[in-house]
Amino acid sequence: MTLLINYTLTNPVTLSACFEVRGFTALLGRSGAGKTSLLKALAGLLPATGTPWAELAPQHRPVGYLPQGAALFPHLTVLENAAFALTGPDRLKLAQQYLDDLNIGHLAARNGSKISGGEAQRVGLARALARRPQLLLLDEPSAALDAATRDEVLAQLIDTIDATGIPALAATHDPAIAALADWVVLLADDQIIQQGTPRHLFDNPTSIAAAQLLGYQNFWPEAGATCTIRAEDIQIAPAGRPAMITGIREQGRDFRLTCEMPEPVIVIIRAGDAAAYEIGRQVNLFFPPAKVRLLSS
């Protein structure tokens, strides 16, 4: 299902956003770009104009909102948290069903403050799904997760959302999370600057702002334009652009070279030997033409 969003905000940020939500969609932008404000506007928690649902009160909007850190009520049980938005005599029974569907039904009697970050995410998701929404809103879904379990929990979260068939919009500043999405929307300079599938977007940024959001670090002027290339795509070669090594840092199994040509350039050497390089050494950098991208300003 594809959902078209067209919203304009003037407070607390000035923002105009027109984009599509397709499956699990990542809204990628820097901190302070307005991602949270846009999600709150869609949920009816901030004033905005546009479509869909801007004319509806928050309680009447068909959205499920999972705020940053899941925001569970610490004085309520997991079951009471999941049932918070529900009414009627069967509210607890229905909430228990959503917990069971997310494989956390056994936590129902546990206090909301006594569960892990990943479990809290799923409780928050159960609470959001219990509204039977037409759109799920997730604000920085990795914020409460530790590095060791982040990828696994996020993959489970995305799989669960995909299984519901409900489109989801997840605000994030992390390109690694955007890479897991079905569709990616880039937010910068108070507007949507590019959108597309992760595979297309990560290989084809159209502007400097888009490339920076997608993790590109190297930029240099050429023939009146700006070029970029990923650090891991640059090769040390017998011939190429002359540069001098100004910094060396290990990065797990790889290592990172900082060079000047004279523009600063970052090179990632995969599973290399840092002893083979030294600060002050002259090297030749080869930029494979197929990996270089020409950008607009």
Topology:
Layout: E1 2-9, E2 15-22, E3 24-28, H1 35-42, E4 49-51, E5 63-66, H2 78-82, H3 91-101, H4 117-129, E6 135-139, H5 150-164, E7 168-172, H6 175-178, E8 183-188, E9 191-196, H7 198-203, H8 208-213, E10 218-222, E11 225-229, E12 235-251, E13 254-260, E14 264-269, E15 282-286, E16 293-295
Parallel strand pairs: 3-7, 3-8, 5-6, 6-7
Antiparallel strand pairs: 1-2, 1-4, 8-9, 10-11, 11-16, 12-13, 12-15, 13-14
What features would you describe in this structure?
The protein has 297 residues and is of the alpha/beta class. It folds into two domains: 2-203, P-loop containing nucleotide triphosphate hydrolases (Rossmann fold); 217-295, Nucleic acid-binding proteins (OB fold (Dihydrolipoamide Acetyltransferase, E2P)). Helices cover 23% and strands 33% of the residues. The chain contains eight helices and 16 strands. The chain starts with a strand and ends with a strand.
Shape: elongated
Q: How many beta-strand elements?
A: 16
Strand order of the largest sheet: 5-6-7-3-8-9
Percent helix: 10-25%
Overall pLDDT metric: 90
SS class: alpha/beta
**CATH homologous group name of the largest domain:** P-loop containing nucleotide triphosphate hydrolases
Number of domains: 2
Short overview:
The protein has eight helices and 16 strands.
